[in-house]
Task: structure prediction
Amino acid sequence: MSECGGCLIGDCNYVWKVNSVPQETILHHLLVEHNIVIASIETVYSISKYCSYWSHKINSGNVEQFLHGINVHSDCQNAEAKSFYMLNDTSNEDRVLRFKLHQEKLQEVLKQQQIERDRTNFKIQCLFCPDFLHGNRFTISSHFFEDHSFSLGHPDNVVFTEQFIERLRQKMNKFECLYCDKVFRDYKTLREHMRKKLHKRLNPSNTEFDKFYVINYREFGKTWKDLGSNDKEEKESKQRNEQLNTTEDWDDWRDQDPDMKCLICNDTNNRLIDLKKHMLYKHFLDFDEMTSSLSYYKQVKLVNYIRYKIHDDICPFCHIPDPDIPNHLITIQKLPETLFREEVHSHQYIPGMIICP
Result:
């Protein structure tokens, strides 16, 4: 049975499941229903235990004995002042309580970290492909980084790993960017946004994920920012992500990808990297080398031009008609310069997935 927390005020029936209801929802209830504000909430490491402690105090004595009263005057004329009550760490009792809750939370986190460190039977579906990841935390982190150029951080600094990944999955299922939190109309648009903006990473300024990092529990009231994070390491990590976020690295999001058609024949594949290999080994066409000096716009034009020529049974490289273009291309060794002239790219688009990024 899930542990429940209750409101500060004894005759209020508001309860919540611990770790299931967002902290903001609880704070909103206290403010709207009872005019109670908990100051410096970031130093309250268990709002359920905090409310339970003060509930016994408040309901057994005078409210104002424990809560600081504040009268707020409205700008409206003849409006009565509204009274709010605040719990903060200005009293020694409150400071001691918050510190005690921090120590309890730290022990809980360290215990969980050791459990996850020793665990070798994780089974988690990848965020970016259909693969299920088995093994320890390093196996999961290695898959994310090596196959998808995505990093959760050092495994020894991550805690509540399964909750963390499921939280990220929830965001992506709502087509929400992991970095900027923007919501898009579908998965394809989200993927394109994250690719172009280099948002296939977590935003270090987003405190939503702080609870999944051990460093944020090390010292009372301090996060990784207060403890002096390694800016150089963060900068190097960002540069590494930018270098790794190439076209090939984004082919891994294949669970919802449509099939892409080869430029030369009718073969299809839902992974760009595999399709490129097919063109290279089957048709001796190195797409990466062919487009390395072209902008995205010119790559699109080039693909359209090649499809147009293939559709008309004309070699796009030497312009010689041939009904068997795949065999004909084996003899072509170099891409003619005329392919890059502006006028050859103004042809009608022939159906088939564009394979450039």
Observations:
- The CA atoms of residues 322 and 328 lie 7 Å apart.
- The radius of gyration is 29 Å.
